[in-house]
């Protein structure tokens, strides 16, 4: 038997490997291009965002400065100032708005977003045309990268800031009377679910309430919008210098107690503090009064008048004491209108936690702010047919409001000039 061998002949496949190599190279080049240009775009995007943030803040700061120089309602001036400041800041950081490499747009007011059309808000839009690199194989166009930011710049008329960052009842309204924060806002920094609590039948009124946590209301009435889950508000007077006791004369080397007669006090150091009560009538001359222990206390039926005094409550040779105002007589204080302590009537040592207690009994008028950042503050009103003015602002750890009467915190009287220049978008 004869066998034949079979020979299998494969068709010719010349160049097939070359084609697949070329296809693979194109894919590889595409991946490399995406990786390189994508990385460059991400880096430039971060830079664009930083410049947009800074330009919006610069524009907002210029708007704030115009507000405090009497140009609060001058739209064209604010627009020009915001654009000039924002464009200058961007140019200083390599975005010169030449329309080719970069474009910078500053809008006052914002054209879009949550704050569109709102006064004192500045919008910055930054675009950079990134030169193509490896990606130029696929496109002849540059790579546009953009970012946007919105900032606000305005003086804030602070009514109350409760700085404590945790715990319930950081601001507790537990009154049957009425409390009005005139033309001011309330800020509560606690992250608790009951950081702001209304627990009695009275009424609390303010422009708005900014609460880091949340609020509860078991009774009573709240007038003004409550915003929850907000960012904390920093202490705006943190850089305020404490009075220099060494530059002041010692007015009393032991606790001063005044219960009768008419007395005029001068600024200086009071070792052991000042306690005024009974039927005393006391006048405080302008200047700084340093309580080195003992505190500053007014009670009974005393009548006290202070023409731009600043009470600084600290410690010294005597144990620390409280600030306490609760007189059935007349209590009238005004505050500096210029200088470092403009708008401040009471300043408690930042390390002191002594409770500040102020009660209105029908003839109390405090025309300055109370600054006690580490202390709880208790406010009460006993005057039901009118309203006591118990200050222009409070910056404290916590606040509790009680009483049957009506009290006002009036931010329009010699207000603290506190800037709010911050990013909001």
* Gap from first CA to last CA: 94 Å
Number of spatially distinct domains:
2
Structural class: alpha/beta
Q: Report the helical percentage.
A: 10-25%
Descriptive key words:
single chain, 425 residues, alpha/beta, 2 domains, four-stranded antiparallel beta sheet, 2 helices, 16% helix
Brief write-up:
This protein is α/β, with parallel strands linked by helices and 425 residues long. It is 16% helix and 39% strand. The strands form two sheets. It has a 27-stranded parallel sheet that branches. The protein has a four-stranded antiparallel sheet with strand order 1-2-3-31.
Word description of this protein:
The chain is of the alpha/beta class and 425 residues long. The protein has two domains: 23-155, no CATH class; 158-423, no CATH class. Helices cover 16% and strands 39% of the residues. It is built from two helices and 31 strands.
Task: Describe the protein's topology.
Blueprint: H1 16-67, H2 75-92, E1 102-107, E2 121-130, E3 143-156, E4 158-162, E5 171-173, E6 178-182, E7 185-188, E8 196-198, E9 203-211, E10 215-217, E11 221-227, E12 250-252, E13 256-258, E14 262-265, E15 268-271, E16 274-276, E17 281-284, E18 287-292, E19 296-298, E20 303-306, E21 309-314, E22 323-325, E23 331-334, E24 344-348, E25 356-360, E26 364-367, E27 369-381, E28 388-390, E29 394-403, E30 407-410, E31 418-423
Parallel strand pairs: 4-7, 4-29, 5-8, 5-29, 6-9, 6-30, 7-9, 8-10, 9-11, 12-15, 13-16, 14-17, 15-18, 16-19, 17-20, 18-21, 19-22, 20-23, 21-24, 22-25, 23-26, 24-27, 25-27, 26-28, 27-29, 28-30
Antiparallel strand pairs: 1-2, 2-3, 3-31
Helix pairs in contact: 1-2
């Amino acid at each position: 038997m004869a066998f034949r061998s079979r020979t299998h002949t494969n068709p010719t496949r010349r160049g097939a490997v070359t084609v697949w190599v070329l296809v693979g190279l194109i894919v590889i080049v595409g991946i490399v291009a995406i990786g390189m240009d994508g990385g460059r775009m991400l880096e430039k995007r971060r830079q664009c965002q930083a410049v947009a943030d800074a330009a919006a803040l610069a524009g907002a700061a210029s708007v704030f400065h115009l507000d405090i120089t009497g140009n609060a309602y001058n739209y064209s001036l604010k627009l020009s100032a915001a654009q000039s400041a924002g464009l200058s800041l961007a140019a200083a950081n390599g975005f010169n708005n030449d329309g080719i490499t970069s474009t910078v747009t500053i809008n006052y007011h914002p054209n879009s977003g949550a704050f569109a059309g709102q006064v004192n808000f500045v919008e910055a839009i930054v675009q950079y045309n990134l030169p193509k690199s490896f990606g130029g194989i696929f496109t002849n166009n540059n790579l546009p990268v953009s970012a946007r930011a919105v900032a606000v710049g305005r003086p804030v008329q602070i009514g109350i800031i409760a700085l404590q960052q945790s715990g319930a009842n950081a601001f507790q309204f537990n009154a049957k009377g009425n409390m009005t924060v005139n033309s001011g806002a309330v800020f509560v920094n606690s992250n608790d679910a009951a950081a702001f609590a209304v627990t009695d039948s009275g009424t609390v009124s303010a422009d708005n309430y900014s609460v880091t946590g949340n609020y509860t209301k078991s009774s009573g009435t709240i007038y003004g919008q409550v915003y929850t889950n907000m960012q904390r508000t920093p202490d705006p007077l943190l850089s305020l210098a404490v009075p220099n006791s060494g530059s002041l004369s010692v007015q009393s080397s032991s606790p001063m107690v005044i219960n009768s007669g008419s007395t005029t006090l001068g600024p200086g150091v009071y070792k052991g503090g000042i306690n005024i009560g009974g039927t005393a009538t006391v006048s405080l001359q302008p200047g700084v009064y340093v309580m080195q222990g003992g505190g500053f206390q007014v009670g009974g039926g005393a009548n006290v008048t202070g023409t731009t005094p600043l009470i600084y409550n600290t410690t010294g040779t005597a144990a620390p004491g409280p600030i306490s105002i609760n007189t059935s007589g007349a209590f009238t204080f005004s505050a500096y209108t210029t200088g470092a302590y403009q708008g401040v009537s009471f300043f408690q040592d930042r390390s002191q936690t002594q409770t500040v207690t102020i009660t209105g009994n029908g003839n109390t008028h405090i025309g300055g702010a109370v600054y006690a950042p580490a202390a709880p503050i208790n406010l009460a009103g006993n005057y039901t047919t009118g309203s006591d003015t118990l200050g222009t602002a409070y910056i404290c750890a916590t606040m509790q409001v009680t009483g049957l009467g009506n009290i006002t915190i009036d931010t329009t009287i010699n207000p603290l000039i506190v800037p709010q220049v911050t990013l909001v978008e």
